[in-house]
Amino acid sequence: MSFPFWMLIVVLAVAAFSIRVLGLFAGDTIRSSRFSWVLDELPGLIVVSLVASSLAGQSIGVWLAASAALVTAYFANHVILTMCVGVAAYGGLVWVGL
Amino acid sequence: MKHGALTILPLAAGAAVYGFAFGLLAAQVGFPWWGIALMSGAVHAGSSQIVAVEQFAGTSAVIGAALAGAALNLRYLGIVASLSEVLSVLSFRMKLLVIHITGDENWALTMAERAKNPEIGAPFLIGSGLVMISVWTSSTTLGALVGANLPNLEQFGLGFAFTAAFIAMARGLWRGASNLLPWSVSFVITIYAVTLGVPKAYAIIAGAVCGLVAAHIVRTRRRVAL
């Protein structure tokens, strides 16, 4: 493995860990400040943004499968069941050509 | 710890598919299997690894590729910050270990389960994190070793499993009507940004930040109303 490959691994590893450590210190600082509400709100907002980023620009079939997963999640509030229904809906919709 | 390790297994299966595909990609770029194993273990950030290797394949520019990958990881500032209370029971050395094994999936699952049961904490995060980093490292390595002689598992819907899982986790984090406006703002801004061509990493950050502004407005109005 040549030097650029090693460099990419090292730089990427250092960058990834540094960001996590920054988050660790930021978390403790924010928790004890008047902005502690940010830590309560952030998880939901990031998860919603992750969902949105994976749905943006996708076919109607993907959105329908996501709707099926949302309905399941709303009533069941169960991760594994939602995944099973979502994947089954996605597979079925792909199968019928959506 | 065992509870977290078992609960994360369906998500780990999804990660294994991506890991395998990434291993193939990285091997085609010229990484040996042990280099891929080293990268997956040391970086442990799937999407940023994929982006960095794709950029590296196109340009061979190390800094540019690493920056592109690191930009995807900026959301970990918020992710790790939000774990402040969960990690508070651990020593500093353990915190450093745990934040390394924390990824999107085991973080979101921990937070969603914790919203239902406040006793869920660091052991759950550690158990699920250990499974995720093991599965990610071994699947990427296997992808590089086995080659391209397998069917495309994405077409069977396994790629959608992550989206469905995150939807379920969002449900677990839902705390009522006060979330409606901030979450809608995050969702719409992220969709809009991605549609405009903004890289997903920045779109996610933009969506979360705009959602925080909306949450602040909701909280301020409630305080004034009281």
TrEMBL record, chain A:
InterPro entries named in the record: Brnchd-chn_aa_trnsp_AzlD
Keyword field: Membrane, Transmembrane, Transmembrane helix
Membrane-spanning segments: 42-66, 73-96
Protein name (database record): Branched-chain amino acid transporter
From TrEMBL, chain B:
InterPro entries: Brnchd-chn_aa_trnsp_permease
Compartments where found: Cell membrane
Sorted UniProt keywords: Cell membrane, Membrane, Transmembrane, Transmembrane helix, Transport
TM helices/strands, residue ranges: 120-136, 156-173, 180-195, 201-218
Organism superkingdom: Bacteria
Topology with respect to the bilayer: Multi-pass membrane protein
Assigned protein family: Belongs to the AzlC family.
Identification of the protein by name: Branched-chain amino acid ABC transporter permease
Organism per entry: Pseudovibrio japonicus
